[in-house]
Design a protein that fits this description.
There is one protein chain. The chain is about 45% helix and about 5% strand. It contains 21 helices and seven strands. The protein is globular and about 80 Å long. The termini are far apart. Bound molecules: flavin-adenine dinucleotide and iron/sulfur cluster (SF4). The site of flavin-adenine dinucleotide has 27 residues, from α9, α11, α14 and α16.
């Protein structure tokens, strides 16, 4: 009998493993403290994982597969993946163990060590989920210090024939960023969150009884994330119908009036493999082909770029640079993450809104993660380890391969520029241009210094100044150094002094 391990983010019903039930195969799925405790997770994240795993196990059983499912509070649960594999293999009389290749280095390493140490023959198969192999990005950019997403993305468009016409990009352009990225003023109503509601009270109370340390809020009667393939497909259809027609236009907008705006909320379903990336891409492309008047190319291309481009590219960066990537701290940042990241109790309106919606929904969209919380952490010189563990815990979709590359790489520039050619930093100007946050803030977005000056402003110039040696020669940043150098000397001094004051009292901001 073969024992096949299915991890919590491997719920891909289209995988060849699940084509036909066999009496010689038992699937093993497990909820373990090893996974609930490696970071302090949002309670919705753990509940969604376990609910999705339980539903997947039930589907397999309905299809006639043999399944051994270990709940977190089962007496015979050893709370550790290799220990459970050994004990269940012995209990079931298995003569072979197989697993799908994990997406995380940590688990990949652990399972490889297990395979080498166990007396049973072990085999690993691909999860069949991604559109690239682990090492494709590394091979494509071999010998280069910087990787270019745009080049990778164009290759992917050609290779998978996505939004292509006669070998050329549909509409004659690869990129519609110029048309996209507007501030949202409510001119089109935002569709809001999902209308999915799953009762996870049993899981929430099990987590409480077991003493699992979580963060954030949950309405356990009504979890709003897709936890079955049916729900994931329903969510995809809703997104395509109501939000995709406007996705690109407002993809970078932020608003106190809508935490979700026109985003898909599909990252959890994609990351646990309830949806295949290509089916999401094709669904978006087909809507444009069938109804180009309703689904403009800039909207659809903007969305497809995120999945066919960024998602696959980040995975490639991960496998090219782990495990060193997790240690990188190119800017030498070492401050502690302020406590308001866990409570949202801060006078900075942009930070308060972004953090409180993250605690409420386990969700913030890309620009909130990058240009509000990430921007602040980078300007304030927070230790990337602390930033990583916050992002890894709080978001519903946070799995290391995609969290760390976005956080340590894109957001914190801790990889020294592998992902981004310049750091994503901004003053209040950008936040005000893309949101309505500044209007309701106790700080003044126009001021650089003074008790009510927006902290982003002085911290921005302080960041540039303290990293002058590294960035002043960067053609994409030279202009900002010229702006600073042209400022009145007293203004420069007062701005840098103000930043020092804020840095000494980050907790009080
Ligand atoms: C600091 C930081 C941390 C992040 N951590 C994660 C994370 O842990 N897990 C995660 O899935 N995404 C992460 N992202 C990327 C992105 O913010 C989320 O994928 C997105 O916000 C999820 O919401 P959505 O499904 O509504 O996305 P949409 O805006 O609707 O985008 C559609 C899909 O594109 C993919 N996507 C979009 N941007 C990216 C990106 N930069 N990298 C990879 N995939 C992308 C996602 O699968 C997403 O579901 C992070 C971004 C930043 C800046
Ligand atoms: S004024 Fe500054 S702190 Fe306040 S919302 Fe705007 S950018 Fe954020």
């Amino acid at each position: 009998m073969t024992l096949r391990l299915v991890l919590g983010d491997q719920l891909h019903i289209g995988h060849p493993w699940f084509t036909r039930p066999s009496p010689d195969v038992t699937f093993l799925m497990m909820e373990v403290r090893q996974e609930t405790d490696y970071a302090r997770h949002h309670i919705q994240k753990i509940a969604a994982f376990f609910a999705a795993m339980r539903a997947f196990a039930a589907t397999l059983e309905e299809q006639g597969h043999r399944v051994r499912y270990l709940r977190l509070d089962d007496a015979d649960n050893r709370q550790d993946i290799p220990a459970n594999l050994s004990s269940i293999a012995a209990e079931a009389g298995a003569d072979r163990i197989e697993y799908m290749l994990p997406d995380e280095y940590r688990l990949d390493h652990q399972l490889r060590e297990f395979a080498e140490s166990t007396s049973l023959p072990c085999g690993a198969v691909d999860s069949g989920h991604f559109l690239t192999e682990r090492k494709d990005v590394e091979n494509m950019f071999a010998g280069k210090t910087q990787y270019l997403m745009e080049r990778f993305y164009r290759d992917m468009r050609r290779k998978h024939d996505v939004l292509m016409e006669n070998g050329e990009p549909a509409g004659g352009r690869w990129n519609y960023d110029r048309e996209n990225r507007k501030r949202w003023n409510g001119e089109v109503e935002a569709p809001g969150g999902t209308d999915l509601r799953t009762d996870v009270t049993d899981i929430a109370s099990m987590l409480r009884h077991s003493g699992v340390d979580t963060m954030g809020n949950i309405d356990a009667n009504a979890l709003a994330w897709p936890v079955t393939r049916g729900q994931a497909l329903q969510r995809l259809a809703q997104f395509i119908e109501h939000a995709l027609p406007h996705f690109g236009t407002w993809q970078d907008a932020m608003s106190t009036g809508s935490p979700f705006l026109f985003h898909s909320l599909l990252s959890f379903a994609l990351n646990v493999k309830l949806l295949h990336p290509m089916e999401v891409i094709r669904a978006a492309e087909d809507s444009w082909r069938n109804d180009p008047a309703r689904y403009g190319l800039p909207q659809v291309e903007g969305f497809i770029r995120q999945i066919l481009g960024w998602r696959e590219y980040m995975r490639g960066i991960y496998w090219a640079h782990m495990p060193e990537y997790a240690e990188m701290n190119a800017l030498g940042h070492d401050r502690a993450l302020p406590a308001f990241f866990w409570t949202a109790e801060t006078g900075m309106s942009c930070m308060r809104h972004t953090i409180s919606q993250s605690l409420e929904h386990a969700y913030a969209h890309h620009i909130q993660r990058l240009m509000v919380t990430g921007n602040f952490a980078l300007l304030a010189g927070i230790d990337p380890d602390e930033v990583d563990s916050w992002y890894l815990g709080i978001y519903i979709d946070a799995i290391e391969w995609v969290e760390i590359t976005n956080t340590r790489g894109m957001s914190q520039y801790a990889d020294g520029g592998i992902v981004g050619s310049k750091p994503y930093v901004s003053s209040a100007n950008y936040i005000n241009r893309m949101s309505d946050y500044c209007g309701g803030c106790r700080y003044d977005r126009k001021k650089r210094h003074g008790d009510d000056a927006c902290p982003f402003n002085s911290l921005y110039w302080h960041f540039l100044e303290r990293h002058r040696d590294r960035f002043s020669g960067n053609p994409r940043m030279a202009q900002m150094y010229r702006v600073f150098d042209r400022m009145d000397a007293e203004e420069r001094r007062a701005t840098l002094q103000q930043a020092e004051t804020w840095l000494a009292q980050l907790e009080a901001l």
